[in-house]
Design a protein that fits this description.
Blueprint lengths: L1 E2 L6 E4 L5 H12 L1 E8 L5 H12 L3 E5 L2 E7 L11 E2 L4 H12 L4 E5 L10 H9 L3 E5 L2 E7 L8 E3 L5 H11 L5 E5 L13 H8 L4 E8 L2 E9 L4 E2 L3 E2 L4 H13 L4 E8 L6 H8 L2 E11 L2 E11 L8 E3 L11 H8 L6 E3 L12 H11 L4 E4 L2 E4 L8 E3 L4 H12 L5 E4 L11 H8 L2
Parallel strand pairs: 2-16, 3-14, 3-15, 6-7, 10-11, 19-20, 23-24
Antiparallel strand pairs: 1-24, 3-5, 4-5, 7-9, 8-9, 11-13, 12-13, 16-18, 17-18, 20-22, 21-22
Length: 441
């Protein structure tokens, strides 16, 4: 795939359905009693992996484009699969289904592709084993072998890191517990959820008895989520908002390229997901939220994006600490943006980037250096100075967010940018290049 410099982005953009919410909608609908119609479901390969795994667990699913109808069998209605459950490249599929399967009375195996098979799963196996399931990994990595147990034993668990996937796995196991399961996040300085809360919102929407509170400690505030194992889920139709993480690529391009003016429709504006927008607005970006409303407990709205004053801000953008957990998916594109900021950019406390679809710290640094950027790598992040980017031959490293981030970098680089492995975008946004071409001027 070759990318050339552009002058602006102009027009209206339809972003695919949110991956995080699509995964949860499919899984939770399967655990509900009755039929659920999901609209604007993500057409990504990751979400397709979730649907295929659910079908192997005995769930009947009808797919028509972005409309998915799931005939839920209740939280104990899944059937023992006759073969491994292939999660493809999707860590969300694997970790959330591990929680579901821990509370079933049968054995199963969760496997994945080469990339997923190198990602850490011990954080999942440890709490699920505490709950009475037998969960085995290959030295802390996939495949995951699960001998489920019903009911599981409720636990009170302190997360080692803020992670929506680990939290969700424990809560889903707790849905088949004989009491109340509690999950506590690491302390934060403010009483705000430190990781995505789509699981809590959707489980509550479907009828689960799930509760949240903040505990004050000497170190700040601890967010605690609890679920009653006696809860039953009832089918309700679900509308999936458009993915705010996928919108970040277009937002960045519109901020950098002069005379840009784009409208992104029906974007999910969950407070745990919009740190990217808040950081950029605080730095002077021209981002306006219109038509704000709520669907199935999730806030959504339209985004109008123009350059604003961000590129004139003389200060260095520094991101570290609690906010990193809510920026983790957007950090590669923020790194690209950093090359255009007067004061540059520094990101720290982002160790989690090392164990994503690629080592995203290494992937970002190596590609930026190929484009002539001044960048310094740290164990937990990097520093990027304002730089004139030059087109180069880059590598996606099989990572969809790296591929999309550097496609955007190519729009404000001189010369030609070529991305090897650009097909990695299919994992989350198969139509990315088509949509981008429709608004490039």
């Amino acid at each position: 795939m070759k990318i050339y410099s552009a002058n602006s982005l102009v027009g209206e953009i339809e972003i695919p359905g949110d991956k995080s919410i699509s995964h949860r909608a499919a899984i939770f609908a399967s655990l509900s009693k009755g039929k659920t119609t999901i609209t604007n479901f993500s057409v990504s390969e990751d979400c397709r992996s979730t649907l295929q795994c659910l079908e192997r667990l005995g769930i009947e699913i009808e797919i028509t484009g972005k409309r998915v109808v799931i005939d839920g069998k209740g939280k104990r209605g899944l059937s023992k699969p006759s073969e491994d459950l292939d999660c493809g490249n999707s860590g969300t599929t694997m970790r959330l289904l591990a929680g579901v399967l821990a509370g079933q009375n049968f054995e199963s195996v969760l496997s994945g592709d080469t990339s997923l098979s190198a990602r850490p799963m011990k954080r999942i196996s440890m709490p699920l084993n505490e709950m009475g399931a037998k969960v085995e990994t290959a030295d802390g990595q996939p495949p995951i072998r699960i001998a489920g147990k019903y009911p599981v034993t409720p636990i009170s668990y302190d997360l080692p890191v803020s992670s929506a996937q680990i939290k969700s796995a424990i809560l889903l196991a707790g849905l088949n517990g004989n009491g109340v399961t509690k999950v506590r996040n690491p302390p934060t300085k403010t009483p705000e959820p430190p990781s995505r809360n789509h699981t809590e919102l959707m489980l509550r929407y479907l009828g689960a008895r799930i509760y949240e509170r903040f505990l004050e400690t000497g170190d700040g505030f601890v967010h605690e989520v609890s679920i009653d194992g006696g809860s039953e889920l009832s089918a309700r139709d679900i509308v999936v908002p458009s993915d705010v993480s996928s919108s970040a690529f277009f937002v960045t391009a519109a901020i950098v390229l002069k005379d840009s003016d784009i409208m992104l429709k029906n974007i999910g504006l969950n407070p745990t997901r919009i740190a990217f927008l808040e950081v950029l607005k605080g730095f002077g970006a021209g981002i306006e939220i219109l038509n704000a409303r709520e669907v199935n407990n999730e806030p959504i709205g339209d985004l109008r994006v123009r350059p604003g004053e961000l590129l004139q801000n003389p200060n260095r953008m520094e991101l570290r600490g609690d906010i990193i957990a809510n920026l983790i998916d957007e950090i590669p594109i923020i790194a690209v943006l950093g090359t255009q900021l007067n004061g540059g950019l520094e990101i720290r406390d982002a160790h989690e980037l090392r164990v994503k679809e690629s080592d995203r710290i290494k992937s970002v640094v190596e590609n930026l250096k190929k484009m002539g950027a001044a960048v310094t790598e740290f164990s937990d992040g990097f520093r990027v100075e304002k730089s004139e980017l030059k087109g180069a031959k880059l590598n996606s490293y099989g990572d969809h967010r790296i591929a999309m981030s550097f496609a955007i970098a190519g729009l404000f680089s001189s010369g030609e940018t070529e991305i090897a492995g650009f097909e990695a975008v299919n994992v989350s946004f198969p139509e990315f290049f088509k949509v981008l071409a429709s608004v490039v001027k």
